[in-house]
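Thread: Newbie trying to understand structure tokens

Hi all, I'm a second-year student working on a class project, and my supervisor (Dr. K.) asked me to get a predicted structure for one chain before our next meeting. I've only ever worked with sequences, so writing a 3D structure as a token string is new to me. If someone could post the tokens and maybe explain what I'm looking at, I'd be very grateful. Here's the chain:
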Amino acid sequence: QVQLVESGGGLVQPGGSLRLSCVASGFTLDYRAIDWFRRAPGGKREGVACIASDGTDYYTNSVKGRFTISRDNAKNTVYLHMSSLKPEDTGIYYCARDLGKCVQEYDYSGQGTQVTVSS
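---
Reply by user tm_fold:
Sure, no problem. This is what the structure looks like when written as tokens:
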């Protein structure tokens, strides 16, 4: 049974940092690309970052230089390190299993973790 469980969200002031974690189970993480996407309060879904099985990473333009995606296959975990956070980064963050090499189509995602950036 494939499962993805996110954690690490919370309330942070603008300019602050958070690290999100995504623990995967039910499949071999080593061979799969994993994405982080977010859904803003208005409901729009946006792909944030992706890390391929070979470690290649991709970011949406709005987070480049501020967010870093990484993976620890031994722990079946993918991380999203977020720094210099802005109010527009607020949303529910989900991790998802990509159908290819970061094609931004998913077959499984987690329940999400809330990130709120506010003073």
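A couple of things are worth pointing out once you decode it. The first strand starts at residue 3 and ends at 7. The chain has a mean pLDDT of 96. Feel free to ask follow-ups in this thread.
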